[in-house]
Each structure stands twice: as C-alpha cells, then as structure tokens.
Automatic annotation (TrEMBL):
Skewed-composition ranges (Basic and acidic residues): 276-292
Matching InterPro entries: ADH-like_C, ADH-like_N, ADH_Zn_CS, ER, GroES-like_sf, NAD(P)-bd_dom_sf
Gene source species: Streptomyces chitinivorans
Protein name: Zinc-dependent alcohol dehydrogenase
Transmembrane segments: none
Biased segments, Low complexity type: 413-426
Region feature (Disordered): 270-298, 411-432
UniProt enzyme class: oxidoreductase
A Pfam family the protein falls into: ADH_zinc_N
C-alpha cells in the first residue's frame, strides 16, 4: 500500500509499504478513505519533536471503513464507517474511566508513566504507525473507533479526528464560561476550530492572534477580532481591546514552533531577547534541516506561552493545547504566579469528546467543513506538507483524499472551503 513515511528531519517520502495485520484481539484494520496533515506532523519534520524512528508511517487523523476486526472486538464489523481518534487508550484503566484517555496506563508499551500514545508519532508515544496510508492497524479498536452516521461526510469527519476535539478540549482547559472574553493564540486549524468551540461553550468575545494574513482573514470570516503580531504588539492590543483588564481566558494553539514577529512594535519589543530565543530553539531542536524556507523550526519556542500569560487578566485561565515536548524548560512561571493564574494543559483526551462532537456536527449545530482549505492526494502528499509547512496562502488545513476524488465531499476539491466554521448555536445553550 502507499503511505507517507518519515525518514529523518526534513526527509519524508511517499512509499510502498506492507499492509498492516491484526496482532491483538482488540485490533481492527481500517481502510482509510480520508486522512489529513496536522501542525503536529510538522514538529517531527522540523525537528522540534524528536524521537521519531526511521520508516515510521506518519499521520494521526483518519476516517475510514472497518476492513477486519480481531476476536475481541464485539461492537464493530467489516463495512462500518468510522472516525479514528488520534490518541490510543485501553478504556479499562482508572485514567481512561475518568476520561483521561491521553494518560492511559496500558496503551504505551513503555509502561504506565511513558506518556500519551498516538498514531504516527515518536517511539515515546507508543511507536505506532500512522494514518496517512491506505490501511492502518487500530489497537483497542473497541474503545477507540467512533461510528459515523451517513449524514456526517468525510470532510466533516476528518476534522473530528483531532482538530475539533482538541479545540473543544482547549476551550474546556481554559475554563470558558458564559460571556468570557477569550484570546486564541495561533490561527492554524486548531485555533480556527477553537473559535467555534469557545463560542459553543459560552464565549462572549473571541480575539485571535497570528502573523499570517490569510489565516487572520479566516478568523475574521468567523467574526473573531483579529490581531496581527507583525503589525501590533499583541499584549498591548489585547489590553486595549479589554479596557486595560486583559482577557479572561487564553487558549495557546501555537506550541513549540512559535515564531518571532518579523516587523512592527512586537519585533522591536523583543529585539533584546534574540539570543535567549536562539538558545531555546537549539535546546528544543538539536537537529534542524531547513531546506530554504521549508522545515524551519519556530524561532521563539516560549513566545506564545509568554504572550498568553501576559494578556490574561488577573486570576484568569490559560489552556495550552499547542504542543510542548519534554525538552521545553522555559515558561513564564513567576508572572503567572503573581497574577494568580490557573494553568491547564496537555494532550487531548479525544475519545472523551468525540462521540458528543459527532452528534453536534450531525445536528448541524457546528459545521467544521469550511476549515478544510485544501484536498490533496497521497501521491502529492510531500508537496502538500511543504506548502502547509510554509503556511502558504490558502493552505490552512490540508486533507488527504486517500481513495482519490471519490472520498471528497461535493463542493470541495482544489478550491475547498472558505475557512469559516459555522455555528448555528451560540452562548450558554451549547455549554457542556
Ligand atoms: N494538545 C493536543 O492534543 C494537540 C492536538 C492537535 C494539535 N496540537 C498542537 O496544536 C498546535 C496547532 O496545531 P495546528 O495544526 O493548528 O498547527 P499550525 O502550525 O497550522 O498552526 C500554528 C499557527 O500558529 C501561528 N503562530 C506562530 N507563532 C505564533 C506566535 N508567536 N503567536 C501567535 N501565533 C503564532 C502560525 O502562524 C500558525 O498559523 C500545534 O502545536 C499542534 O501540535 C495539539
Ligand atoms: Zn492532528
Ligand atoms: Zn487506559
């Protein structure tokens, strides 16, 4: 079968690889109809999330059809259409039962304290092959797989695999309540989806910070108040917009690949910290293989965290979903302490939110489809990765139609979405 394979920092390829087989009774094999490229995949290719093994199939977002089930899987049969959550969990341990699927005691072969297991990640994340392939082996399929109604198409469902649950989780971490003013750092797919999720959880105002003009346009299409960090100092802008108080809640949807502003007052304010950021970057990404302007690691790993803490109001909350790998040791802890902030963070417990979100999408309350701005085919995946990595205009979220155009929803294709998730419901009624 064809798959997208990681060979090294700056080196990914589309290759023929062997098809997966059932190993354990709770495994299933899923024939993938749609996959997608995520900001998390970029960390592996840029070198900001080390520990990948050569030959690992990439990808942790997929929609597909169950092809085969192990003897222990009683709730699915071949032919069922499913969405695959990015993280893998046993469903039996005390953590899974409490909803902390990302902290499962049993899924990681490295042991209870080894960390979150997800598809297509580093060895420390369980060493599982990923979902940018024609078929995948899904461990604990009886717990992980979520059935899809026919009314939820592949374009919607692929955004339910990781992006929507993570955005929902980010809004929950940030403790968004009725009427809150919320800032979202990062207007990539996760930040875009967080606009709608914040509103569904009650946000009164949403302010979005990024430096990429067309991503800010997409946020404005969703009627978020936008701040371009290359034109304004974002903390000052957030204070101006909130009568000098700051925002009640912040969602950091950037993570370790945060970039410095290239120009404007924010760049001037940070000019003296260049060496400090260089040191942070070299600590985070000991191996870097940029190819011109592609695969360039973020040059200010702690910047989104610093801005998040600074723009929060006293006694506010910061929910961090942008990924920070273990080697990141910088956080503005003292500033957060002095403001009595609440800091919550981590890997999404996808399985906890997914069934509910499938219903929210099926009911029409949320339509994430327009966030998909490009569909590519697997043979073109490397070029799609490169274009997404450079944050080129129009390449905010890239799905991979694994089965070819047949799996692409009507109305999509090269031109794809407008970037505005639509929420029929607003305010408190959606709080859950
Ligand atoms: N916690 C989880 O379980 C989970 C799940 C999925 C994704 N993620 C993480 O969420 C983050 C976002 O994912 P994505 O797919 O949207 O990635 P992305 O790379 O497409 O988006 C990141 C955005 O942040 C912007 N940015 C860079 N520096 C910034 C700064 N200093 N201030 C504000 N914005 C800045 C970039 O321009 C970009 O638009 C990634 O770190 C990804 O790994 C986490
Ligand atoms: Zn993802
Ligand atoms: Zn478990």
């Amino acid at each position: 079968m064809k798959a997208v394979v990681w060979h090294g920092v700056g080196d990914i390829r589309v290759e023929e690889v062997p098809e997966p087989k059932i190993h354990e009774p709770y495994d299933a094999i899923v024939r993938i109809t749609s996959s997608a490229i995520c900001g998390t995949d970029l960390h592996f290719v840029r070198g900001t999330m080390p520990g990948m093994k050569e030959g690992r199939i990439l990808g942790h977002e997929a929609v597909g059809i169950v092809e085969e089930v192990g003897a222990g899987v009683r709730n699915f049969r071949p032919g069922d259409r499913v969405v695959v959550p990015s993280t893998v969990a046993c469903g039996t341990c005390s953590y899974c039962r409490a909803g902390y699927y990302a902290q499962c005691d049993n899924a990681n072969p490295g042991g209870r304290r080894a960390g979150t297991v997800f598809f297509g990640g580093p060895e420390a994340a369980g060493g599982l092959d990923g979902l940018q392939a024609e078929y995948a082996r899904i461990p604990y399929a009886h717990v992980g797989l979520v059935p899809l109604p026919d009314t939820v198409d592949d374009a919607q469902a692929i955004l339910l695999s990781d992006i929507c649950p993570t955005a929902w989780f980010g809004a929950r971490l940030a403790e968004i309540g009725s009427g809150d003013t919320v800032a979202i750092l990062g207007a990539g797919p996760v930040g875009q989806a967080a606009i709608a999720c914040a509103r569904l959880q009650g946000a009164g105002r949403v302010i979005v910070v990024d430096g990429v003009p067309d991503r800010l346009d997409l946020a404005r299409d969703q009627h978020a108040e936008t701040v371009d960090f290359n034109a304004e100092e974002p903390v000052e802008a957030a204070l101006d917009l909130t009568g000098g108080i700051g925002v009640d809640r912040v969602i950091d949807a950037v993570g370790v690949d945060a970039q410095r502003p290239a120009r404007g007052p924010a760049a001037e304010a940070l000019a003296g910290q260049a060496e400090e950021f260089d040191r942070e970057r070299d600590e985070v990404a000991p191996e870097q293989r940029p190819d011109g302007d592609t695969w360039v690691p973020g040059d200010a790993p702690s910047l989104a965290a610093r801005w998040a803490v600074r723009m929060a109001a006293k006694a506010g909350t910061v929910g961090t979903i942008g990924v920070y790998p273990p080697q990141v040791g910088h956080y503005p802890f003292g500033e957060a302490f002095m403001k009595n902030l609440t800091l919550r963070m981590g890997n999404c417990n996808h399985r906890r939110y997914l069934p509910r979100l499938v219903s929210v999408v099926a009911s029409g309350e949320l339509d994430p489809t327009p966030l998909l701005t490009r569909w590519a085919e697997v043979p073109d995946a490397v070029e799609a990765y490169r274009t997404f990595d450079r944050r080129e205009s129009g390449w905010t979220k890239v799905a991979l139609g694994v089965e070819g155009r047949g799996s692409v929803a009507p109305g999509l294709g090269e031109a794809a979405g407008t970037g505005a998730a639509t929420t029929a419901g607003t305010g408190e009624t959606g709080r859950r």
